[in-house]
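Re: How this chain folds, sequence and tokenised backbone to follow
Notation: Tokens come from a learned vocabulary of local backbone shapes, not from coordinates.
Start of record: The labelled sequence and token lines come straight after this line.
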Amino acid sequence: MQELVLKLQYSKEDLRKYHFFTIFKKSKLYLVTFSISIIIGIISIITYISLSRNSLLIIFGIFLILFPAYIILVLMIQSDRLFKSAKIYWEEHIVTFYEDHIFVTTSDSTQKIYWDKIYEVVWTKKELVIYLGRNLGVYLIRSKYDPEILFRVEELLKKSIPLNKFKLK
């Protein structure tokens, strides 16, 4: 098989997308928490308007509605700080796919990862993430790569990764 090579150059926005993907798409708990927070906040405000004029109720409602925005803002700030401080994200990463492993190469290191050591692979319409651990992975934005190469990568992943570790979304 001819080797498949993908070159990655992360931007601050790419790192931010990866963090949001890992938090929100991988774990539905955040989305449920945010939804419940907004719904209870709206109910609190409606109750304040229609039934009582308790100022604590309106403050509680506003807090619950703004809570998800606060969490998103904190995540954005953390992601931006990580990008500034971790110079590994500034470097080009080369991911080479083989039958039984992948190589992830930067300017000063090469890591050989066998398929059985992969934690999980998540394939969506926009992203491909090969997780090496619960929250650590190789993040690919699919629109940056040739569809033919991505098709070959997908076929290799389907053949190499156990079905319980391969998630199509």
